[in-house]
Each structure stands twice: as structure tokens, then as C-alpha cells.
Design a protein that fits this description.
This protein has 221 residues and is an alpha+beta fold. The chain contains 7 helices and 7 strands; from the N terminus they run E-H-H-H-E-E-H-H-E-H-E-H-E-E. Helices cover 37% and strands 25% of the residues. Strands 1-2-3-4-5-7-6 form a 7-stranded mixed sheet, with helices on both faces. Helix 1 crosses helix 3.
Amino acid sequence: MPLVLAHASESDIDRLMEVQFAAMAQEPYHHVIYPGPNTPTKRAESGARILADWKSDPTEQVLKVVDTSNDELISYGKWNVYTRERPQSEWDQHIEVDWTTDPALREGAETYIREIHGMRHKYATGQPHLLLNFMVTHPAYQRRGAATMIAKWGCDKADELGLPAYLEATAAGHPIYLKVGFQKIDEVVIDCDRWTGGLGPGGTGKHRYTMLFRPARQGHA
């Protein structure tokens, strides 16, 4: 049965968190930004934070993919559509890491935010653009094209508006974005071994995050 792409609603938040925590179980970035373990309580805490951002940010477009054979929500992503240049004051806003008191997780979160947001600021500042902020697919449903559907939605929107698009990718997600026209422009490497014991499940060794760019298509907008 086909997969269907649609806008998510606030009532989807519990399932969105189930998908997110399952997909990111071995990703240290997720562990420091949305600390586990994967329990209903922790998922609810993260869901409340995500929902608050969703409600307050008019640029945010939250998309879901549903498997119509069982009506299961299997993937979701967040595109930010910045049709105007973001003011410098917005770029300069400091994200307060107030969701954990663990010193290692706090420092890890601050490191990731500094490095990832630093790449965004370096390349996307000074122009309207689209940003794929986040995308995950439940492990039981990967390699069926759900992520590509979400990525392509943003590409089509960028083409409609005549704007460039940006995102950061893990090694696992990199090939998806190359297929829809993104190209590598930078990367950061986070050495999780700098923190004693690493950064949660999967959080040891060096992790590479690639900044990808899809130029504005000529003849649009």
C-alpha cells in the first residue's frame, strides 16, 4: 500500500516522539538535546518542548508520512521556510540548555548547538532560505522512501519560492539528500570520547555531521 505525505497535527505528538526516540536511539546529538531513556515520561518531556516551538514558530512546517496499509505514522520532518532574511538578533539568540542538570550532557548539548548552529549561521545568514531542521523514520519502516518524500517536499517548496535550501546530515542520511539535489559544503566532527563515558548510547568515538546545500533553481519565484 502507498505511503502518504501530509502535514502533522498537534494530536500526532505522542507518535512523533515514539518515531523520533526509536530512530535516534544510537545518535549522541539526540541524547544530549532530548535526553532519554526511551520511556513515556521522557518522550512526553521532549514532546512538550517540540510542541512549544511548533506553536511559537510560524516558519515551521511539520510533515508526516503515513503507511496506509496500517495507518501507522512512520516518519516525520520539520522544514523551516524563511521567506524573509532572518534578522541578526535572531541568529544571535542564545539557546539555554535548561533541560538537563547533568554536566556532561549539558556541555555536550552546548557543543552540538554551537557547532551545528555555527554552520547554519555561516552559510544561511543574509538570505531567505529553507532549512530541514530535523527528519526521522522509524527503524521498522526505513528504506521505503518516506524520508525522500519529506525531503522532496522542501525541495519543491524551495523551487516554488526560488530559494536555496540547507540541512545537516548524519552519515546515514547523507545519500537521501544527494538524490534530491543537495551537495556538501562543510562538515563538523564531534569527538564524543572527550566526555568520560561518552554521550549516551552510541555516543563514543567521532561523529561526523555534514552541511548540505541545494541552490535556488533559476526560473522560479
